[in-house]
């Protein structure tokens, strides 16, 4: 294996097909595949199983990683949730279909897990995803070209978001991840937040950027200028 592609973003997703041989080809095959503890020979085939070296783990990580890249395609950033599909939760995608991790190079006897240990789209990812325009194609509001406007006034300590299409969601970045967000069920055309209330959500972490999504799926981000 000379190279492997796993990229997503900007309405485009790419994922190499070298591991597809391990995947279930139907829902009926999901449980048998995610229970298959056959060893993978990395000298002969692609092994992207997070070091676990078994068919079930290879299928879990790579199917999960494909969902991860599709998430980026729809605009999702990484998240902090260890079970989230937009982080290393991809390794536990098998748990959506089974009740036990089979043996692997990490755990010879396998592992029985609880429902709280399954992979999922973390709440912050799911809330972002629901406003993607790709999931609202039958909604006439999607035809609006209005993009949110974000004004960050550090002197006044305020963040004002406006959109003619309405503002249902605003997210707050720390580094390269959105770590907190606010949802607005009525999707007002204007939302005003204070930097202090945003900072309370972030704790000791510094706000780097604000992203807003309109009800039409259009989004915009604005960086927070740092004083020298």
The coarse overall form would be elongated
Kindly report the spatial arrangement of strands forming the biggest sheet.
Answer: 8-7-10-11
| pLDDT averaged over residues | 91
- Using only CA atoms, what is the Rg? 21 Å
Strand content: 15-25%
Largest sheet: 4 strands, antiparallel
Task: Give the helix/strand class.
Answer: alpha+beta
Q: How would you spell out the order of helices and strands?
A: EEHHEEHEEEEEHEE
* CA(first)-CA(last) distance: 47 Å
Low-confidence segments, given as residue ranges, are none
Number of DSSP strand runs? 11
Number of H/I helices: 4
Give the fraction of residues assigned to helices. 10-25%
Into how many domains do the coordinates divide?
2
Describe the protein's topology.
Layout (H helix, E strand, L loop, with lengths): L5 E4 L2 E4 L11 H7 L21 H19 L26 E2 L9 E2 L10 H7 L19 E5 L4 E5 L6 E6 L2 E7 L6 E5 H8 L6 E5 L5 E5 L5
Antiparallel strand pairs: 1-2, 3-4, 5-6, 6-9, 7-8, 7-10, 10-11
